[in-house]
Amino acid sequence: xxxxxxxxxxxxxxxxxxxxxxxxxxxxxxxxxxxxxxxxxxxxxxxxxxxxxxxxxxxxxxxxxxxxxxxxxxxxxxxxxxxxxxxxxxxxxxxxxxxxxxxxxxxxxxxxxxxxxxxxxxxxxxxxxxxxxxxxxxxxxxxxxxxxxxxxxxxxxxxxxxxxxxxxxxxxxxxxxxxxxxxxxxxxxxxxxxxxxxxxxxxxxxxxxxxxxxxxxxxxxxxxxxxxxxxxxxxxxxxxxxxxxxxxxxxxxxxxxxxxxxxxxxxxxxxxxxxxxxxxxxxxxxxxxxxxxxxxxxxxxxxxxxxxxxxxxxxxxxxxxxxxxxxxxxxxxxxxxxxxxxxxxxxxxxxxxxxxxxxxxxxxxxxxxxxxxxxxxxxxxxxxxxxxxxxxxxxxxxxxxxxxxxxxx
Length: 409
Ligand code: HEC
Ligand code: HEC
Description:
By secondary structure, this protein is an all-alpha fold. Helix content is 36%, strand content 2%. It folds into 2 domains: 58-66 and 78-237 and 396-402, Orthogonal Bundle (Cytochrome Bc1 Complex, Chain D, domain 2), CATH 1.10.760.10; 241-392, Cytochrome Bc1 Complex, Chain D, domain 2 (Orthogonal Bundle).
């Protein structure tokens, strides 16, 4: 685009924005605009390196997007994420590697309420950034007020779930498949894919975003799936107190946090053997295994949700559920697939004294054939909780690149 044309667009944009009484809220953008306009010399060459916005008015009127795209594709990961082992956990398919343009589109789609039948709910309605992209409600409320049958899941570090299956029962084989399911769920968003496409086509800001991402503005559900899954995969949490600890031999940890960490890694609790992907020698970066387990929540088939068992109709899979990452666990309450525990102390008490004798109870939660009794002291329970709180990542939950881009909703 020639600079003259660009400047004309900026002037038009500015006039329209002033007329609407609103701007993008980006101070540096406003500055560029006013300088250009008051100079009264639209033919002046824009100096090399100056960023002027190419974002058209129909986009900037609805969305607050940065002039320079956020970096989704190449975050500055710490050393413990850049090991061959952790890179090996990455479930990104070769035909859907992250590009900033696609993840930017994915961000808008993630916050798009038009992806629901009555325009009431976006993905973000049940996956709140402040809650590690989970939902503080035990069950989430879908577009028509009907509740989901399970607790929403935090989305941090989904990229590193090694076998790349999603949902508590792992029924989605890939993230690309998963992200289209809520749209079509009769409880969650209630659209067909055709309806979702036409709702997206109906919004003035998408032609530009699809063009940026794919080179042309054609809207397909496959493209939506690619963009949404890239955005979800870009949600990497790596800036918690725990991460500083990994990099510094945990000298930043308090005594209680260090005791909690030792307990978590001990044979007495076995927490780490299930919550860390141990297949490759005890990697601690992700705090997620790549398996489903039964952790003794219920004695037998006492409720109607048998997790993986219901899906594959195999007895020995009953009561097995995916283990989400413990990252930001402080913020993703309530806990377990049915959100039955309100606090982390309740969770610890479950493992300490409440493990039930389910036929598929994992042997790491048994002693001599009986459900484990850990006999932890109150201090030890507090220590375990203190350790889990070190996994909270304030940067992740406030990072603008994952936030709602809509100016007013
Ligand atoms: C009405 C609430 C609701 C909406 C809307 C919603 N989700 Fe979810 N999400 C959930 C619940 C509940 C689960 C767990 C469901 C299950 O396992 O059966 C879940 C699970 C997931 C998972 C699986 C995470 C994992 O580790 O396995 C991903 C990814 C996800 N949602 C992404 C999205 C995206 C993308 C959208 C929008 C297209 C979306 N969700 C819309 C409630 C919602
Ligand atoms: C046998 C493997 C196993 C062991 C050992 C184990 N867990 Fe778990 N953990 C699981 C499974 C499976 C789930 C999810 C179960 C469900 O929702 O039905 C889970 C869930 C959790 C959750 C809630 C996650 C969420 O997103 O809601 C927390 C917190 C937790 N475990 C902490 C611990 C701690 C602390 C220990 C040690 C005291 C421990 N776990 C030991 C398998 C295990």
